Amino acid sequence: MQTKRLGIEGSIGGLILVFLAAFPFLASDFRVELMGKFIVFIIFALALDLVWGYTGLLSLGHAVFFGLGGYMLALSYVLQQGVPTFMTRFGINEIPVFLKPLLSTPVAFLLGMLLPALLAAIIGFFIFRSSVSGVYFSIITLALAQLFELLVINLQAYTGGFNGLMGLPRFPVFGEPLELTTYYYLVLIVAVGVYLLTRWLTGSHFGKTVKAVRENENRIRFFSYNPASYKIFIFTISGFLSGLAGMLYVPINGFISPQDIGIGMSTLLVVWLAIGGRGTLMGAVIGALILNWLSDLLSEQYPEIWQLLIGSIIVLIVLFLPDGIYGSLLKWWNGRVLSKQQNQGTVPQMGNLEAGS
Fold first, then answer.
1. What is the mean pLDDT of each run of 10 residues along the chain (357 residues)?
2. Residue 38 domain flag
3. Where are the bilayer-spanning segments (predicted)?
4. What are the angstrom distances between the C-alpha of 204 and each of 193, 210, 211, 293?
C-alpha cells in the first residue's frame, strides 16, 4: 500500500514539477512572478504540514515565523540604502546598533531562518512542556499572531509601521540582482529541496515517532519517549522553513507589511493545507497552487464577487472532500487497491478468517 502511495505521489509530483519548470516558457513575466509567489507559498504550506499534519496541532500563528524571516531580509535591503525616512521621522539619524548586523545580506539571510527557528523553539518549549494541546494550542498561537502584528505596527520607527517596508529591490541574492526567470528557478529548486527534506523527515524513524505521538501520546510516554521533545523539534524545523519562505517572498513581492505576519496570512495558510489535504505533504503543494491560482483567476474575471466564489469553492471541497483534494484521492486509491487485492485473494477476506477459526 505504501509503495502504491509513493507511486501516486511520484506521478503527481512529477507532473507538477514538469509544469512548473516549463511555466516561464509558456507565460508572461507577470504570470511567472505570480507563480513564483505560489511556489513560495508551497514551502510555507509544507512547514505547517509538519506541525498540523504530523503532530495534529493546528497552529493559527505560523505567519509570525514567515513574517519575521521576511522582515529580516527586507530591513537589510532598506538599511543598506542608508537611514530610512521612517527612522529619521522619529529622530533616529543613525542605524541602531542592534540593527547593524542586517547591513550584511548573508547575515540577514541567516537571521531570517535562525530567529524564526529560535522563536519557535522558545514558544514550543513553554507550550509543550506545559502539556498544552488541542484547541488551547490553537488559541495561544492565534493570540501570538495578533500580538506580533500589533508589535510590528507599533514599532513603526524600526519597521515602517502599518505601511510596512515598500519599494524593495527585486530579485537580489546576496546583493546581486537576478533576472525574474533565474530567481523563479532558484525558488523552485529550494521548494523541491524542502519537499524532499520534509518527505525524508516524515518517513524516518523520527517522523514515525511523531505520528505515533499524534495517535497516542500516553502510549509513547509509556515506552520512555518524551513527546514534548519531539513536538518542540518539529515546531522548530517548521519555524525555520517558514522563515525561509518569508525571505524568498520578499524579493519577488517587492514589499512586506504587518498583514504578512498576522492572523490573515496564518488563516490563509490553514485553508491551503485543509483544501489540499494535511498530513500528506503533496496536499500542501496542491492546496497552495490550486487555491492561489483560482484566487488570481477569479479576481480578474469576476472582480466584484471573486471572494464569494472562492468561499463557495472552499465550502464545497470541505463538505464533499473532507480529507482535502489529495487526501481524498489517496483514500479512494487505497480503497481501490485494497478491493483489487481482496478480489485476487492476496488479502484475507473476513469470511475466510471466520472459516479458519
1. 65 94 95 96 98 94 96 94 92 93 93 97 94 91 95 93 87 74 96 97 92 85 86 97 97 92 93 94 96 94 92 92 90 73 59 40
2. yes
3. 6-27, 34-54, 60-79, 107-128, 134-159, 180-198, 232-256, 268-293, 305-326
4. 16, 10, 11, 33
Determine if the pTM surpasses 0.85: yes
Assigned domain for 280 exists: no
Cell digits of residue 317: 471541497
- Between CA 68 and CA 216 the distance in angstroms is 33
Q: Which three cell numbers stand for residue 290?
A: 490550486
Q: Using the structure block, give the residue that is written with the C-alpha cell 515546531.
A: 235
Residues 6+ apart with CB under 8 A from 119: 64, 65, 68, 239
Tell me how far apart the alpha carbons of residues 145 and 64 are, in angstroms, rounded to a whole number.
6
For residue 11, CA distances in Å to 7, 154, 214 come to 6, 48, 28
Number of domains in the chain: 1
Instruction: List the helix and strand counts (H, then E) for the chain.
Output: 17, 2
- Torsion over CA of 47, 53, 58 and 60, rounded to 10 degrees? 30
- Residue 209 included in any domain: yes
Instruction: Evaluate whether 324 touches 283 at the Cβ level (below 8 Å).
Output: yes
Rounded distance between C-alpha atoms, residue 227 and residue 213, angstroms: 6
Check if the beta carbon of residue 285 is closer than 8 Å to that of residue 276: yes
Structural domain range at position 204? 9-261
Which residues is 176 bridged to in the sheet? 173
CA distance 69 to 152: 13
Judge whether 248 lies within some domain.
Answer: yes
